[in-house]
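Try this one yourself first.
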């Protein structure tokens, strides 16, 4: 079967063999419910507890701070809506470039009596320091700023931002789903700086879809989104997805062990990729900011991003025209809009996100395919213009 070269690791990652091997018994012979009192159930509970310890260790957190959820979207909603439910409506401030699963629940709260401020970013996608200070001056109750952007890869210095906010009484959350596995992450250090909650997801680090976690400072009171039997310290009721949680634990352990070596190798591959893109005259978004080592977001002038992605797919390369979770939305990226990128340029945006198995040869092959595809599209555009 034809298999394109996969260059869309920010959307999801391949399941690492060790995680799959750990999961298989829990899909076959080990099928107990972790809440059952017999040996089948006790074995499942031990497996969930071990995975919780693995995820906590990978993030320099305590196991009791890890709340398992079904995905990063649920974890983000759990914090935003769950914390808001325990507070008197006030100001909720989020960055203008957050993932929709932070922005959308924040907008829902704005229709329920909360005030919402979307903190501006500069042309590189970094939090605007003046607008951040303006937000803090209004004494927000809740803050959410992602560690790394899923489209551009641009990093926010959440420790510094949280330190500025510390003492103001706000609960500070950071979506770290894209950063985990690509950068070292210490919840203990971030917590000391003033970060109270962190979202991570299994399928961004070589684990399965269907498992994620909200790492939560136990001083923060949140209401559950799902009420029921009181699972996950009463914060997320429902029978645990044992196979996925087990796979998450293994993937987290592996990701933390290799993160520094992986980051250095991916940064080298990205440098080669971006040198080739520069030779094509492509515009790189966020290139002047600190970014994830694997992420490159670019546009070629006068070429539609969706068209380019389709052509590249047929040429054997899987890339993205934006965030996978928002692919049904035909509008230009809200991230690029917040960065001040003109809509006609934003519509050309293509994201390449490298992964653990990506090779230098694949990067060069992609550049060759991109070059020939761009030349072909430009030729078609020229012919159409002449005919008109």
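Now uncover the answer:
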């Amino acid at each position: 079967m034809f298999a394109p070269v996969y260059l869309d690791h920010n959307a999801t990652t391949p399941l690492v063999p060790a995680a799959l091997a750990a999961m298989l018994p829990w899909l076959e012979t080990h099928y107990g419910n972790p809440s059952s009192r017999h040996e089948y159930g006790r074995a499942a509970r031990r497996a969930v507890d071990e995975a919780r310890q693995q995820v906590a260790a990978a993030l320099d957190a305590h196991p009791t701070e890890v709340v398992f959820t079904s995905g990063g979207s649920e974890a983000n909603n759990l914090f935003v809506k769950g914390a808001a439910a325990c507070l008197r409506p006030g100001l909720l401030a989020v960055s203008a470039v957050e993932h929709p699963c932070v922005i959308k629940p924040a907008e829902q709260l704005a229709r329920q009596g909360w005030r919402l401020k979307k903190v501006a970013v500069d042309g590189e996608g970094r939090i605007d320091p003046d607008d951040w200070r303006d937000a803090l001056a209004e004494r927000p109750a809740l803050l959410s700023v992602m560690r790394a952007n899923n489209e551009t890869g641009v990093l926010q210095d959440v420790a510094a931002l949280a330190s500025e906010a510390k003492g103001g009484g706000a609960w500070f959350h950071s979506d770290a789903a894209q950063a985990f596995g690509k950068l070292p992450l210490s919840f203990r250090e971030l917590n000391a700086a003033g970060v109270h909650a962190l979202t991570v997801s299994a399928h961004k680090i070589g684990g399965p879809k269907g498992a994620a976690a909200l790492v939560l400072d136990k001083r923060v009171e949140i209401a559950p989104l799902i009420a029921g039997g009181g699972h996950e310290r009463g914060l997320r009721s429902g029978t645990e997805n044992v196979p996925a949680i087990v796979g998450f634990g293994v993937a987290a352990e592996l990701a933390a062990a290799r993160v520094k070596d992986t980051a250095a190798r991916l940064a080298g591959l990205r440098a080669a990729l971006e040198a080739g893109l520069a030779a094509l005259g492509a515009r790189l978004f966020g290139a002047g900011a600190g970014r994830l080592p694997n992420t490159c977001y670019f546009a070629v002038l006068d070429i539609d991003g969706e068209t380019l992605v389709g052509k590249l797919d047929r040429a054997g390369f899987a890339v993205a025209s934006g965030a996978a979770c928002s692919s049904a939305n035909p509008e230009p990226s809200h991230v690029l809009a917040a960065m001040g990128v003109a809509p006609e340029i934003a519509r050309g945006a293509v994201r390449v996100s490298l992964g653990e198995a990506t090779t230098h040869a694949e990067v060069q092959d992609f550049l060759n395919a991109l070059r020939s595809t761009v030349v072909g599209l430009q030729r078609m555009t020229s012919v159409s213009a002449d005919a008109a």
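Discussion: The chain has a mean pLDDT of 95. The first strand starts at residue 5 and ends at 6.
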